[in-house]
Amino acid sequence: MNNLLFVTFFLILTPLFSHGPDYNMAIDAKKRGDYKSALHYILKQLDADLKTYGKYADETLMCYSKAGYYSEKIGEYDKALEYSFEALKIQKKLLKENDKTEASTYNNIGGIYSKQKKYEDALKYYFKSLEVQKIVFGANHRMSSITYNNIAGIYRKQEKYNKALEYYTKALEIRQDTLGKEHYTTALSYSNIGLVYFSQGKYKKALAELNKALKVQKNIFGEEHSFTKKTQGNIDYIKSEMIRSEK
What we know:
This protein has helices at 21-31, 35-52, 58-73, 77-94, 100-115, 119-137, 142-157, 161-178, 184-199, 203-221, 226-246. By secondary structure, it is mostly helical.
């Protein structure tokens, strides 16, 4: 079954300023989904910023962060890590200890390692991100739910299903408390938990969670939305597997 609703989330740094025509060209290309061109322009801007401001400057930091993100989007994972670690180095120099942007960079590095199937490295940086988030935001901030979700995704890929359930459940609890039971990310958590139960062969528990997700998605998106249809398809598939297993 194609489990489309298992998702890894990246935490994107929001630019506080805009500088240079190439930076703006990169942003425009990103909006079009043309990440290759976005990377081309942001690297041009990075070169200019290094000459103008030097390495340890906000402008340079932003370009390294964007370069890491755009490289990841086009599958150039080694380069994505290179740029992301440069961004992290600058953050540690410029920003106060345990800054929220540092948590974002840790999370994004974890996501790149996950794409490379280097799962232990991914977990290392996801947990670093989570540690900073707890210091900055407290124990149960909605941003932490993203990282808990990503940690759970790694454990699922490793087939450590009980650990996956532990962290998906933590993400769910935070989303219910901070966003409410009718939020679309809460539905996503129900779905993730249900699909892990399916992987464990616990079909009834899987259906119970997926039906919770379906109810929320119908209320938010309607029956024709792709998320709703995907969840309904997963439910139908599990039902068919239950029938097949009973024969």
